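Cross-check.
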Amino acid sequence: VQLQASGGGLVQAGGSLRLSCAASGPTFSRYAVGWFRQEPGKEREFVSAITWSGVGKYYAEAVKGRFIISRDNAKNTVYLQVNSLKPEDTAAYYCAAARSDFGNLESPLLYNYWGQGTQVTVSS
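Predicted model, tokenized:
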């Protein structure tokens, strides 16, 4: 599975973006997908995850109520709608795919495949 993240950019505080994670491979619909973010010099942190069915959705406390994860398995794409952005949301955002929904979806160790990052920069 190859993942391609896109949709990042420069936005003012309070603005919105829609990040996309497009995947290759016929079995992508069976993978859980997570979004993580990382600032230079800091550890990668969990943002959100969605199970293969789309029923289970999980969010970090810092983004709950502002970010929305969804997926379109027909398009092999997972989306992260990021709203009410704050300067502290500035980071490179990465998507990742896990073969199994079982386990801690908040841990990067669960994920088997990673895409390149897409930069989100929020100005105050």
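The mean pLDDT is 95. The radius of gyration is 13 Å. Passed to J.P. for a second look.
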